[in-house]
Amino acid sequence: MRTSPTIFQTEEAPQSPSILHLTNGTTTAVVCPPDPVSGYYRATRFDWSGVLSDLRGRGHRYVTPWKNRHDPLCHDDLSGPVDEFTEIGYERARPGEEFLKIGVGMLRRYSGEPYDRFRLYEIVNHGLWETTATRDRVEFRHRLLSDEYGYDYRKELRLTHTDRLRIDYTLKNLGPAVLAGQVCNHNFFTLDRMVTGPDTAIRFPFHPVGTWREAYDCVTLGRDGIRFNRELRPGETVFMGDLHAQDSASGTYGFCILNLLTGAGIRVSGNAPLSHMVLWARRGIACIEPYTTFRAFPGETIVWRLEYELLA
């Protein structure tokens, strides 16, 4: 299957197809393309490109929507390996002025309060989106220009023939200001609709350390990873914001999450230097969020890659 590029620039643009289907013959994915009018995700926290509503293969389902009801304007109503770039220029902007979220657009600061990633901000400039798909891959391109910032951002998702999902990123700075901050991938994986508990295992290629937000009786951080001592109750969450390697020199970008009951799992690796990770989990989902630092000077292009190996 091949679709022509779909371009959106204003609210008068034509509606896009609601989903795209990818396959390499053994693995299938359902992708929700960006669309300012009717897109699956239109909130202002996460990058709009690369959202998956379904990923399956080898007899397992690795991604499904994890909420019972969907709101496209809710900050975390999306699934799969979704990226979040930290805000740029917020501290310099006065109330009413604009700041940047890569993969979303130019947003308006509404008050003197600190930036709140859970709040919906007004999008002043959506930029220009293009989506091009073939049978086993899809490329997103987001171009944006403002008085201070500009970029050409591309993301390609590809189902390879080795039971992997590969994501390639390219960010070119087209503006006069430096683009700098951190980017994380939230990794909303559901792994055969697992219930977060003793059948959930998260492993790292290093000795992980970190500080729990509070004293939990349901989860343990050990030398090789994270285990849950019991099933999380409805509404219960756990959080660790500074998960990292005990030896900073061994902080490789990578982890593995497993559903021990069904055998489904995903091994994640990346080629960008790891800053730290965050763990956020609730009853139906356990997310590891690796953070990396990026910096692109005017005219500079930076690239990075993530790989997701599907385990069974």
Briefly characterize the structure.
With 312 residues, the chain is mainly beta. The chain is built from no helices and 24 strands.
Fill in the keyword field for this structure.
6-stranded antiparallel beta sheet; disordered N terminus; 11-stranded antiparallel beta sheet; mainly beta; 0% helix; 312 residues
Structure notes:
- The protein has 312 residues and is mainly beta.
- It has two domains: 3-84 and 126-180 and 296-311; 200-293, no CATH class.
- The chain has strands at residues 3-8, 20-23, 27-32, 51-57, 60-63, 83-85, 98-101, 105-108, 123-125, 128-133, 137-145, 150-159, 164-173, 179-185, 200-203, 208-209, 219-221, 225-228, 238-245, 254-259, 265-270, 276-282, 285-296, 301-311.
- It has an eleven-stranded antiparallel β-sheet, with no helix packed on it.
- Strand 22 (276-282) and strand 23 form a beta hairpin.
- The two termini are 27 Å apart.
- The model is unreliable at 1-17 (pLDDT under 50).
